[in-house]
Amino acid sequence: MTAKAMTEKIKKYLEEYQNVKLDIAITGESGSGKSTFVNAFRGIDNRDDRAAPTGVVETTMKPEPYPHPIYPNVTIWDLPGVGTTTFSADQYLEHVEFKKYDFFIVVSGDRFSENDVMLAQEIKRMDKKFYFVRSKIDDNLRAEKKSQRNYNEKNTLQQIRGYCIQELEKQGLASSQVFLVSSFHLHLYDFSTIQDTMEEELSSLKKYALTLAFPNINQSSISKKKEVFRSQIIYYVILSAAVAVVPIPGLSFCVDLVVLDGLFKSYLIGFGLDVVTLNKLSTISNIPLEDLMAECKCTLSGQEITATLVVKFLTSFERMGMTTAEEDYSMISILGDWIAARRSFVFLKEFLNSLLDGLFDDAINVQKKVGISKEEQ
Ligand SMILES: Nc1nc2c(ncn2[C@@H]2O[C@H](COP(=O)(O)OP(=O)(O)OP(=O)(O)O)[C@@H](O)[C@H]2O)c(=O)[nH]1
Ligand SMILES: [Mg+2]
Prior knowledge:
Elements: H1 3-19, E1 22-28, H2 34-41, E2 64-67, E3 74-78, H3 89-95, E4 103-108, H4 114-125, E5 129-134, H5 137-147, H6 153-170, E6 178-180, H7 191-200, H8 204-213, H9 219-231, H10 233-241, H11 257-270, H12 275-285, H13 289-294, H14 307-321, H15 342-376
Parallel strand pairs: 1-3, 1-4, 4-5, 5-6
Antiparallel strand pairs: 2-3
Helix pairs in contact: 3-4, 7-8, 9-15, 10-15
The structure holds guanosine-5'-triphosphate (GTP) and magnesium ion.
């Protein structure tokens, strides 16, 4: 296979991953916190222009699509609660075109209603997945803390969970799993377990979409992103080294800067380390941008990616010591068209792995800084 044919094949393969559609439907009674959950899931504050309207609003009667701001192939749908329509559960599912969703999340801010249960049963009958989310947990814990002398968060959470499961059982839905969530503090309680549970039930393409779109709330969600990026390094190395023709002053070999520029941007955005996200995070958390930047050790974090910066970064990495790998070049059996790329191939592979490690550490440190300050409030 020629280098050109190989790169075409890889581009197609990567595009398939980038374009896979994931549609998540959020439903539940009026006022249960659906729209707030939709926004939180998309990493958007309720006050953001792109946010689903929340609070005292006229309830919409049809599903509203909210594309993920970074990965528009992932859409979170804000559905009207079945109780706010005149439909029965089966009519409702037809009305919202249930077939197009990969799964449903039924949100309740209090107890799960008869409507919620009927809907879940109907979703199950249609061979679709659903998850119960009990929202506004922060409110419950706050109230409980004020009224209980021997307050214990863990016990209170267990009580709420037990109560929800019991209620669902009473209404005919045995062995349901209920996730306790605060849409204002996704890093607390059960939100991260939702990711693990959903992933188990998705195909590898859709799992990929969910991993990238899932908010960066803790070490696990960020680490999953790193693994997704890492699994694709080899393809980007081939893309940027196989047919690279641009000699770069200061670098001992050629690479395709356009490919690397795009890749670096996608890493920064994925880890929440791009300029826009860090600025937003600073505003929401009330932590000065300089303090967030102080958590970042990687030269690229919080920077506008430009060709100049990419070259600067590559040359500094090469200068730092890629000398010992020289002998390893002979190990790579790349023939014909590929000969010219051997050096850049080895370098880029090591470089991208190291970059991901650095960005991962920065993302965790920024997250810790923001997470801790949220809990202190
Ligand atoms: N404390 C707390 N408040 C929440 C949470 N989720 C939602 N709320 C509040 O609950 C109220 C209703 O939230 P919405 O997201 O508008 O609820 P909805 O289900 O979309 O309501 P409708 O569109 O009218 O059906 C708002 O004032 C939210 O701020 C949460 O996790 N914690
Ligand atoms: Mg709403």
